[in-house]
């Protein structure tokens, strides 16, 4: 993956779709503002960063704001808290930078929080779902549902599948542990028992010893609370070990293209939490997917991007709405976002209505369960 910081495409996007839908030229006096796109553009999650940038580019290529010249600035956090701090420190002093579309990982969102709050930089979060992310963070506005909500949904679905005994495999970071703790807390009320809870980290590649122990506990369900790269290894190695339990994974595994490519038939029947599931019967969804595939899917695979792409696209739409209504500095954009606090004031995007509660979290947004059927995600029953 090319280092996006060196890519010459720091997109300069000029305003304007007129009433007829034709692009208009930008006045020489157009306000010049920057929107930072924060994500992992290097390392094992670089495909996520590219997907988020693609969605942001697509939005601003389709929708122009009269009188505004917008530059998208990639900010590479490498899915690492220390790198996130360094990258953010390098950009927050730029006064033309008026907002961020940010954070795949909860760990980077938490690490960057003091910097962003001090800089008073409005930040729309497309993925980071740990509940603590928006604690005491008036400049954070999160579009996705939170992990406590996700844990409830996963646990209830395990009960729906008839689970009596469950095991948990979780990635040892804020996301994985938070999700695992939430499931463990819910299990008794949902009528099943946690018989094993095991952690792993970025250095873990051989899950066979852990899976052998789990198999010996005879669980009905195994929860995976981590990211797709490791989930692929878990599913493939579980099949080797003959572990017949049903697998239910958190939204970190919700990446259709990568999961199917990596796990193949071993992904079939796996349930995955989804902050959003694309519905091609929804006209807004279909328009987004058609445009995304036309622009970025040169091979014609028509694999749906991960749900965070939809939230990043809507985050750009919310910002563009602010720009169009004259909010073009940090303070007024933050006030604009704070005032999106009720259904009648919501942004109507491809993920539905987005409006925020007092903490900055999207109100009335719930996780859904998807399942792999015939090598693609569909909504679970």
N-end to C-end Cα span: 37 Å
- What sort of overall outline do the alpha carbons produce when their principal axes are compared? globular
Strand order of the largest sheet: 8-7-9-10-11-14-15
CATH homologous superfamily label of the largest domain: Response regulator
Q: Concise description?
A:
The protein is α/β, with parallel strands linked by helices and 381 residues long.
Commentary on this structure:
With 381 residues, the protein is α/β, with parallel strands linked by helices. It has two domains: 4-145 and 283-354, 3-Layer(aba) Sandwich (Rossmann fold), CATH 3.40.50.2300; 148-274, 3-Layer(aba) Sandwich (Rossmann fold). 36% of the residues lie in helices and 20% in strands. It is built from eleven helices and 15 strands. The strands form three sheets. It has a seven-stranded mixed sheet, with helices on both faces. It is globular and about 65 Å long.
